[in-house]
Write a structure and sequence with these properties.
Blueprint lengths: L1 H11 L25 H13 L19 H11 L3 H17 L7 H10 L4 H9 L1 H16 L8 E4 L2 E4 L4 H9 L3
Antiparallel strand pairs: 1-2
Helix pairs in contact: 1-8, 3-4, 3-5, 3-6, 3-7, 4-5
């Protein structure tokens, strides 16, 4: 939601700034029984009410909830190797799979289906996922997010020196962007 709002502000300002995504491992290890907890349900209900145009759908009992964020972050690194457009398409494809379609984005098959639907070269994607530097990059970016940007939550967007946590109102992004000029 935060990225959609930031993109809308950039569009209104007729500006295109380079965006550098740094992965933050929200769930490093898969719990024995991942579930859509009542706390998560509350967060999702607020997000769905705040931004209904995104089509966020609450998970229902029985749907397989992701156990870890690491597989999706590794897949994002593999997609990044296919260029900026592929990376961008995959990034939003994963969000759609997770938030709208309620798919388990810790499942490699789901990630491959997202890659294919976003026009990525599936053979190359699979080869890149096996490269050990992909996992190394995920953990290096996580450390950068924590050490350099002091990330403790998702989403966190850094504009210049300003760190914005959560899905802030568009005016917050606009003010931060105005400080860059």
């Amino acid at each position: 939601m935060a990225e959609v709002r930031l993109d809308a502000v950039l569009t209104r300002l007729a500006r295109r700034l380079p965006i550098r995504r740094v992965g933050y491992i929200l769930k490093p290890e898969a719990p024995a029984y991942p579930s859509f907890s009542s706390e998560r349900r509350g967060h999702w209900q607020r997000a769905a009410a705040t931004e209904p145009s995104l089509g966020i759908r609450l998970w229902v009992k029985g749907e397989r909830y992701p156990g870890s964020s690491v597989p999706a972050l590794e897949a994002a690194q593999a997609a990044r190797r296919q260029g900026a457009d592929a990376s961008e398409a995959f990034h939003f494809g994963v969000f759609r799979a997770f938030l709208v379609e309620n798919r388990d984005i810790s499942d490699r098959t789901v990630l491959e289906e997202v890659a294919l639907s976003c026009g990525l070269d599936l053979h190359r994607f699979r080869v890149d996922l096996k490269d050990p530097t992909v996992k190394e990059t995920v953990y290096a970016e996580h450390l950068e997010a924590v050490d350099r940007y002091h990330v403790e939550a998702v989403p966190t967007i850094v504009i210049g020196e300003e760190r914005i946590e959560g899905a802030a109102p568009p005016a917050i992004y606009q003010a931060a962007l105005a400080g860059l000029v």
